[in-house]
Amino acid sequence: MITEEKLIKTLNKLDTKPSNEWANRVVQKIQSDIFNVTKEPQQRNTFSSLFNFLSFFYMSPKYKLFLTLGIVFVLLVTSGGVAYASDDALPGDLLYPVDKAVESINRVIISDPIAKAEFEVQVLDERVSELENLSEDVESESVGDANEEVEAQKNRVRERLEVLAELSVQNKLNTQEQQQLMQEVQNKLQVHEESMNQIKTNLENKGDVDNSQKLTEIKNQYSEEIGGEINKYESESGVQLNESEMENNQGDDTQIQNQNQNEVQNDDNDNGNGLDGGSGSSSGGRN
Questions:
Q1: Counting CB atoms within 10 angstroms of each CB, which of 81, 111, 143, 244 has the fewest?
Q2: Choice among 16-30, 124-138, 171-185, 197-211 with the minimum mean pLDDT
Q3: What stretch of H or E contains 69?
Q4: CA 203 – CA 213 distance, rounded (Å)
């Protein structure tokens, strides 16, 4: 059970420091943007009444922020209401800092090293998806911020993999769980590379050269650093990871294309032989 003391300690460990302006905006809009998406109407009424009551009292921005993060934490572990409201937020959106705050809380709560790495891989998947969504929006001005978020999260994934490599040398990891994680990392690496190529095309199409070039740098670093961790794992463990699902699908597509080409060639040969046979019969008939 989560106690008040544990909650306070958890919040004190967070490195998230939003501006006072953001804290005030969140308090003003938190009723409509968060509590309206809780699962039960009774929950919405309860929290709405709570904030109506608190609105009569003066609160410093620091206390407002603390209260907001506390409610975010409670909702996260009880009903998941904040996740519903902020998980789809993009850089530049009002609720995006809430999404980041929830992630920071998860980083404090998760203790298992492999689970920590899995979490960071999932967050990187979300960051790449956010960047892709923004790249498709011609009017978006937050692509640069999203680029920075992808780069920062890429670094977190690399750091977690480095920690796992050290623990593996010390025989402090479940080898099967580590192999499953590294397989997932390899699969995600190629998926993210393909996504980044598409994002780069989107940015170039709308004339965003600077962010396109920045993304190319991030992609190259990502491929080199994470690919290097994968190669290091295979070398030290002696485990050969399977090809990613995308590579297997590409191989299947190539095989199907080759089969179709062979069938077409066989059909052409059969038709040619049929024509030759028909010509011979006609000639014999004329003789």
A1: 111
A2: 16-30
A3: helix 61-78
A4: 9
Whole-number pLDDT of residue 267: 60
Identify whether residues 117 and 102 lie together within a single domain. Answer: no
- Same domain membership, residue 212 and residue 121: yes
At which of 109, 133, 156 does a domain end?
109
Q: What is the mean pLDDT of the chain?
A: 77
Above pLDDT 90, what percent of the chain? 47
Instruction: Give a yes or no: residue 50 inside a domain.
Output: yes
Core vs surface per residue 223-234: b (16+ CB within 10 A) or e: eebbeebbeebe
For 198-203, which contacts have Cβ atoms below 8 Å and span 24 or more sequence positions? 198/132, 199/128, 199/131, 199/132, 199/135, 202/132, 202/135, 202/136, 203/135, 203/143
What is the DSSP code (8-state) at residue 36? G
Highest mean pLDDT of the ranges 123-127, 241-245, 276-280: 123-127
Domain that includes residue 195, residue range: 113-244
Distance (Å) of CA 95 to CA 21, 29, 119, 148: 13, 10, 20, 18
Q: What is the pLDDT of residue 286?
A: 43
Examine residue 1 and state whether it is found in any structural domain, yes or no. Answer: yes
One-letter amino acid identity for 215? L
Residue 259 confidence class, pLDDT cut points 50, 70, 90? low
pTM for this model (two decimals): 0.62
Q: What angle separates helix 175-205 from helix 143-169, to the nearest 10 degrees?
A: 160
259-267: long-range contacts, CB 8 A cutoff, minimum separation 24: none
How many distinct structural domains can be found in the chain?
Answer: 2
281 in a structural domain = no
